[in-house]
Amino acid sequence: MSTMTNVHTQQIEVTASGARKFGMRDKIGYLFGDFGNDFFFILVSSFLMVYYTDIFHISAATVGILFLVARIWDAVADVTWGRFIDTRKASKHGKFKPWILRMSFPLVVSGILMFVHIPGMSNGFYLAYAFITYILWGTLYSTVNIPYGSMASFITSDPVERTSLSTFRTMGGLFASLIINVVGPLILFVNNKANSNHFMLGAVLFGILSISCYLACYKLSTERVSTPASQENSANLKVTLKALVKNKPLLSILAISLIFMMLNMLTGAVNVYLFKDYFGSASSLSIVGLVQVVIILIAIPMAKPLVAKFGKKEVAAAGMLLAGIVNLILAFLPGLTAMQFIGISSVATFGFAFFNLVVWAFVTDVIDYHELLTGMREDGTVYSVYSFARKLGQAIAGGIGGFAIAAVGYNSLLPKQTQEALDGIYRLVTLVPGIVFLLIFVMLVFIYPLNKQRTLKLATDLAEKRSNL
Q1: Is the pLDDT of residue 182 over 90?
Q2: Where do the TM regions start and end (predicted)?
Q3: What pLDDT score does 17 carry?
Q4: Which of 8, 67, 281, 294 is the most buried (most CB within 10 A)?
Q5: Which residues contact 404 (CB under 8 A, 6 or more apart)?
Q6: Contacts for 303 with CB less than 8 Å, ≥ 6 apart
């Protein structure tokens, strides 16, 4: 491992000989980056649809179209921004983190604007306002998230240290999830109903916390490495695109991530209706959020030794198999109480938690494979292509979520939903995830090529190629 790191350091130069040594300060700083990202990302994923349907009174199908259009646009913005950053020279503060500082303020402001409700306006006004503010927020999110995700490889060139950054990033998202999913429902809902004033209050509070986290990320993180002068502005788009098409690990993980994000966004949106309408307890969402965070925190220390023994692909596949089986069992257990449902579904959460914990390590592997193919380290471009797939999944899921809620008969104007609609909502969060988790299991086992042995060979081949430069 040390030989590989030394070779990598020859390929990528240190920006400042006097830079302090990598340590806990960088890990905490990187944690704060995803902490800041997810205050609004999780708020939007979990509660924006119910805000639009129950406060703006936009039909669920129309909200689905909005999510579809906006996320497709966001996906294009990701790749455009990633390519833009890869062609820029680093400033004295680094290549990526200055963009986090510059763009975080307008990003947070746009997030708050999404939850502004002006009473007495026409339906057309609310629809137009939703389209403009949501698309604006998504575009600005790309300008912060892409440099943040790409920055890890410039904080340190050591593969082990990068793995620790990935773990701390996951923890940052967990802390945001804990606050949004546990505290959020208590703020946003009044008497089991979405309240516009409380949504605005929540947006402002989360906005203040978000900008504080971005500032902490900027202050605590240090970019130590940079692209050699010989590589600056030499990126060839044609060569890059050819390499991306030949990158089988990238293509397969893109497909898997797209499907996973579709499911994640779908269940995140429908879960609100499940607990609000099916179980009649929106406040139970707080318990769900707490349980999910605790389970993932339990899984975190288990992930590294399991991956070391069996491999990333193998651990992720086993987790997906467990999650699929549990969700299929839930689908055929109607009549459960909210607490019984939460208890059983927590086993599925434990299963797919391992995919979430190792997914950033998958991305590191496919970036390394891209370097093996091209000899170029294009972290921003490759990461943005990966983000493109996730955004596309979110786009499709947003559309499916709205149409699915409408298709099962949900009507925000009814004081109580029909039994047919309630049963449909239950199937959306049990049967559909069960099938999709099993599909991802099959794709990991039979399509994704980098098992433990091949990943080790990739590291050896890349180290050898770097040593010959």
Answers
A1: no
A2: 30-52, 58-79, 99-118, 124-144, 171-190, 196-217, 250-275, 281-303, 315-335, 341-363, 395-413, 425-448
A3: 43
A4: 67
A5: 266, 270, 424, 428
A6: 167, 315, 354, 357, 358
Token pair for residue 466?
A: 């770097």
pLDDT over 50 (residue 35): yes
Rounded to two decimals, the pTM is 0.71
Structure tokens at 63: 């909200």
The two beta strands, 225-226 and 193-194, are unpaired
Name the residue among 86, 5, 17 with its Cα closest to residue 379: 86
- How do residues 36-53 score in pLDDT, each as one tens digit? 999 998 898 888 988 999
Question: What are phi and psi for residue 448, nearest 5 degrees?
Answer: -65, 120
Token digits of residue 299? 């899984």
| Rounded Cα–Cα distance for residues 89 and 100 (Å) | 16
Q: Is 231 in a helix, a strand, or coil?
A: coil
Residue 151 near residue 224 (C-beta atoms within 8 A):
no
Q: How far apart are CA 27 and CA 156, in angstroms?
A: 11
Instruction: Give the phi and the psi of residue 225 in degrees, each rounded to 5.
Output: -120, 155
Q: What is the Cα–Cα distance from 302 to 140, expressed in whole angstroms?
A: 35
The pLDDT of residue 111 is 94
Task: Look up residue 120 and give its amino acid.
Answer: G
8 Å CB contact between 262 and 162: no
- Count the Cβ atoms, other than its own, within 10 Å of residue 118: 9
Domains of the chain plus CATH, in order, are 23-227+234-464 (1.20.1250.20)
Token pair belonging to 418: 């029909």
Contact 358, 316 (CB under 8 A): yes
- What is the sign of the dihedral through the CA atoms of 311, 145, 77 and 201? positive
CB 354 within 8 A of CB 303: yes
Cα 36 to Cα 107: distance, rounded to the nearest angstrom: 11
Q: Answer for the pair 298, 350: CB distance below 8 angstroms, yes or no.
A: yes
Give Cα 444 to chain centroid, integer Å: 19
89: left (phi over 0), alpha (psi -120 to 50) or beta: beta
Report the first-to-last Cα separation within the chain, whole angstroms: 19
pLDDT at 15: 42
Please name the amino acid found at residue 115. Answer: F
Helices of type H across 87-122: 97-113
Phi, psi (5° rounding) for residue 53? Answer: -75, -40
